[in-house]
Amino acid sequence: MSNLEIKSRFHILHVEVSHGSDRHDIHIHMERAPLVRDLMEEVEKKSHVTMPNQQLIFRGQRLHQNPDTELEKFGLFNGNRIMLIGEKLAEEEDGHFQRLLTIEKDVKLIDDVLELVCRDFENIKQSQQARSRCEHFLFDLQQRGERAQTDLKKFQAITNNFNLDTSEIYALKKQSQVAALIQDRIDISSNIISTISSYQGGGQNGDINHPDNK
C-alpha cells in the first residue's frame, strides 16, 4: 500500500496536550475522522485525568463541551497544542482506574477475534460445501469462540473482584462500564458458539449477532 493510499484510508492525528508542567504526545490513527471523544479517551490514558474531569481548550474553544464533534471542525490538525485543565485521581483510585482501562482494552481486542470467527463462519456457509467437508474448519471456529469466551470470563472475575472503596467514584463507574461490556461480549460469544454448533449438527442456519451488530 502506498503512502497516498494509507493517507486516504486512515485519519492520522498527532497533537501535544499540556497539563500544567506535563506534556503528553497524543497519537490517533483511525479509519474515520476522530471525534473530541476519541481525543479525550487518549488524554485519559496518558494524563490520568478522567474524561468527566477534563477541560480541553484549543484557541479559546472548549472541546470537551462537544464530545461527538469531529476534531477537524475546530481547526485542529497535526502539531497543534491543546491545554488540559483537570485534577488527577488520587493515587490508589488511579491505580484501580488504570487497571480497569487495561482490562477494557483487552476485552475490546477480543472483539477482533469474535468478528473474525463470524466472518469465517459466514464464508463457510456461503461456500455451500457439505458440512462433512467443513467439519475441521467448523470445529476450529467453535474452539476459537470458546477460548474467547473463557478469556472473557476470566476478565469478568477480575473485574467483579475489584475491592473498591465507596469514595472511588470514577473507578466504580468504570468498573460498572467494563462489567457491562464483558457481559455483552460473553452473550455474543455464546450466540456464536451455539450457532456454529447448530450448523454442525445440521440445524437451521442462523445469523450470528457478532460485534459489528451490537
UniProtKB/TrEMBL annotation:
Organism of origin: Rotaria magnacalcarata
Residue stretches making up the Ubiquitin-like domain: 13-91
UniProt GO MF annotations: protein-folding chaperone binding
Stored InterPro entries: BAG_dom_sf, Ubiquitin-like_dom, Ubiquitin-like_domsf
UniProt protein name: Ubiquitin-like domain-containing protein
